[in-house]
């Protein structure tokens, strides 16, 4: 048995409670409200993380949500700025991904994970705030990510 690590290898951060989707199965109570993480909170977490990142071969900061891209590029950049020597990852529903987001993610080396339920028929419960299917928006975001490698 390996035991418990002396330092973690990742943290999960929620830059905003807001999600631009209204999935029928979602359990997040504040997904319709844009409560953004204060930059000072990210700085306080980074104070520990930056130290831990020096003690392990690889440390990840995972940006999750809500929909993390709903925080906006400027706010997300401000939150990320406090972290040093880490890998940034983002878990997104891809509906907000466009060429500008792809450039933002690429210039920071952010690794992207997609939350997709599966083919279109299995994704029917993923709808936007207007109740329309999110699948076409998801595919547009995936196409943008593919264009940008």
Overall average residue pLDDT = 94
The total count of helices amounts to: 4
Can you tell me the residue ranges where pLDDT is under 50 for at least 5 consecutive residues? none
What is the subunit arrangement here?
A: single chain
Q: What is the terminal separation in angstroms?
A: 39 Å
CATH class group: Alpha Beta
Looking at the structure, the CATH topology is TIM Barrel
| Share of helix, binned | 25-40%
- Specify the structural class: alpha/beta
Query: What's the CATH architecture name?
Result: Alpha-Beta Barrel
Shape: globular
CATH superfamily: Aldolase class I
Number of DSSP E strands: 4
Number of domains: 1
Beta-strand content bin: 5-15%
Major beta sheet summary = 4 strands, parallel
Measured on Cα atoms, how large is the radius of gyration? 16 Å
């Amino acid at each position: 048995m390996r035991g418990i690590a002396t330092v973690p290898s990742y943290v999960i951060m929620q830059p905003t409670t807001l999600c631009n989707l209204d999935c029928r199965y979602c359990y997040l109570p504040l997904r319709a409200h844009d409560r953004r993480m204060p930059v000072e909170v990210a700085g306080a977490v980074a104070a520990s993380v930056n130290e831990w990142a020096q003690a392990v071969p690889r440390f990840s900061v995972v940006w999750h949500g809500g929909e993390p891209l709903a925080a906006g590029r400027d706010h997300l950049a401000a939150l990320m700025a406090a972290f040093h020597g880490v890998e940034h990852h983002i878990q997104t529903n891809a509906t907000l991904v466009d060429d500008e987001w792809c450039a933002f993610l690429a210039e920071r080396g952010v690794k992207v994970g997609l939350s997709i339920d599966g083919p279109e028929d299995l994704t029917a419960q993923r709808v936007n705030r207007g109740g329309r299917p999110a699948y076409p928006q998801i595919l547009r975001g995936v196409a943008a990510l593919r264009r940008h490698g």
